[in-house]
Amino acid sequence: MTNSFVWTDLSTFDLRAAKQFYSAVFGWSYRELEGGYWSCEAGGHPAAGLFTMPETFQGMGMPSFWMSYVQVRDVEQTVRLAEAHGGKVEVKPQPAPGGGVIALIRDPAGAGFTCYEGPDLGGRNRQRAPGCMAWNELHVSDLETIRAFYNKVMGWHIEATGEEGRFEIFKSVDDPEPIAGIQVSSREIKGDKEYWGVYFAVSTLSGASKQIERSGGRIVAEQPLGSRPALLAYDPQGAAFYVVGGDQRSGSDLAAETGTIKWRASLGLLIVAAAILLDADWIWGFLFLLWVIPDVRRGSTHFLEHIERRKNPVIYWLIVSTWSVLAIYLMVEWLWGP
Q: Are the C-beta atoms of 14 and 20 separated by less than 8 Å?
């Protein structure tokens, strides 16, 4: 598994809430290792790691995030090569929870990954067992900023797939099976960050989509993994991850099905219609409450753009407070007005 992806872990703000969410979505059970690091297991398979983000990073405004791990033969040598070819070492080599050595590196475009030296962790499941990491894909704006870096540091060979903007990574020119992918897309599409996306296998995308939203997460977009449909999701604390299903339906079929489960939006439209037809301002107040409560629970809201509480607390609380005050005012006016 040298120079291949073997593990992933989540740096989160609320450990208890994260464990509840991913247990509901992936069926994970948990086992504590050392130093507050938890091993997540799916059907008896090691699937991922989970830990509370250090207060130092929280104070810097770091978001909750999933990290990809690449197993290497020599961490010290990998760090030297990364620095020599335009990378940045964020965390120097140090002991890893459960054994081994790790170091956190950012490639020249800014995408971070952890290199790991030690025994195989077993997190990357080639059989795509539900709940296990099934794939890793680099989302980047410009391939040429990172192609030479990964070739020199990891020895990887990058090939075009024939799909616009998509490439596959091989351990060498002669290796028959890709180990990861690269998706080149504009910042308007992928946002302003360059990142390694972590993909988890699920039995069906429709079932995973329902469970993610039912558990307080969000489905952000449909982003196919080559010819396979996949979804980009956020957990309740804002950590992005992907799910790729065992079902073989097309993207259009999935979009049609997922469109039928948006019962909250459907209920909201019925409430709006009732408020207009009955000319009842208190119904608007009720609608504002329905809007605010999930936003407070998730720690994020949307008003012309997506707002995260941890990143933009002032504007977040102004928006939430505005809807709350309007809700209270309209309902109080109905109860005690003339």
A: no
The runs of H, that is alpha helices, within 173-312 are 187-190, 205-214, 251-259, 263-278, 281-298
Local structure of 199: helix, strand or coil: strand
Q: Give, rounded to a whole angstrom, the gap between the first and last alpha carbons of the chain.
A: 74
- List the Cα angle 171/173/178 in 5-degree steps: 45
Alpha-carbon torsion angle 31, 49, 123, 219, nearest 10? 120
Which residue has 């079902």 as its token pair? 247
pLDDT of residue 126: 53
For residue 200, what are the β-bridge partners? 133, 243
Amino acid making up residue 325? V
The C-alpha atoms of residue 273 and residue 279 are separated, in whole angstroms, by 10
Structure tokens at 303: 């008003």
Per-residue pLDDT tens digits for 274-296: 878 887 777 877 777 877 787 77
Question: What 3-state class would DSSP assign to 251?
Answer: helix
Q: Give the SS3 label for residue 222.
A: strand
The whole-model pTM stands at 0.73
Check: CB of residue 143 under 8 Å from CB of residue 158.
Answer: yes
